[in-house]
Amino acid sequence: MSAVAVKSGAASGTKPPRRTQAQRSADTRARLLETTIRCLHERGYIATTTMLVIAEAGVSRGAMLHQFPTRVDLMLFVVREAYAEELALYAELMSAIAAPDARLASPPEMALQVLSRPAGLAVLEIMMGSRSDPELAERLGALQREIEADSLKAIDRYETAAGQAFPPALVRLVVWAIRGLSLAQMLTGDAEATAESVKLFGRLLETAPREFPHIPNNSHN
Predict the structure, then answer these.
(1) Which H or E element spans position 30?
(2) Whole-prediction pTM
C-alpha cells in the first residue's frame, strides 16, 4: 500500500481491520513465552512467579489465566515451545554440515549451540524447579518422555546423513552432558573451558565409530 493510500485512508477516518480473537490470543501467548523465558534465564525458577510474568509482559491477570490457568501450565508451554524451536535449529545446523566425518563429531557442538540459548537454560531451570513441585514433576516427566521419543524419531534423518546409527543411550549422553556443561558455563562464565570440553567430546565420538552400529547405504530407501 502506498503512502498516499495510507494518508487517504487516515484522512477519511478508515480504521485498520480489527484483530481477531485468535490473533490477540496468539500475541498474548507469544508475549508470555518471551517474558517467561527471559525471567527464567535472568532470575531462575523460584523468582519466576506468574505475577512477575504478568507484570513484565504487560498483560492482565485475566489474560494470563485464560491462556495458562496455573503456573505449571505456563512452564510446560515453555518446554514445548523450546523443544519445537530446538528441532528447527538442529535441522538447520545439520544441513550446513557436508562431510560425513564432521557429522559424526558434531552432535556435542550443535547441542551446545542449541541448549545454551536462553530458552534452553530456561528449560533447565524448569527441570530443576520440578524437584520441589510434585505436580510439575509429574507432568513434566510425562512431557519429557514424549519429547525424547519424538527426538529419537527425528534423529533418524541425522543418522542417515552420517552413515551411523546413534543408540538412544548415546543421544541421552550427548543431551544431558551438554545440558550440564551449559549450566556450568552459565555459572562460571567460562565459555572457553566449555568449548574445550565440547571439542573433546566431539573427538571422542569421531574416533570411536566402532561403538555405533553402521547403517548400510541401502538401509533407508
Answers:
(1) helix 21-43
(2) 0.82
Q: How many CA atoms lie within 13 A of 83 on its CB side?
A: 20
Which residues are 214's β-sheet partners?
164
Q: Kindly state the cell numbers that stand for 159.
A: 543418522
Start-end of H helices in 44-133:
50-57, 61-67, 71-95, 100-105, 107-115, 118-129
- The CB-side HSE value for 71 (13 A sphere, CA atoms) comes to 18
- Residues contacting 119, CB < 8 A, separation 6+: 37, 41, 78, 81, 82, 85, 86
pLDDT in tens, 136-167: 999 999 999 999 999 988 877 666 555 556 77
Question: In angstroms, rounded to a whole number, what is the distance separating the alpha carbons of residues 180 and 174?
Answer: 10
Q: Which of 57, 81, 115, 183 is nearest to 48 (CA)?
A: 57
Question: Count of residues for the chain?
Answer: 221
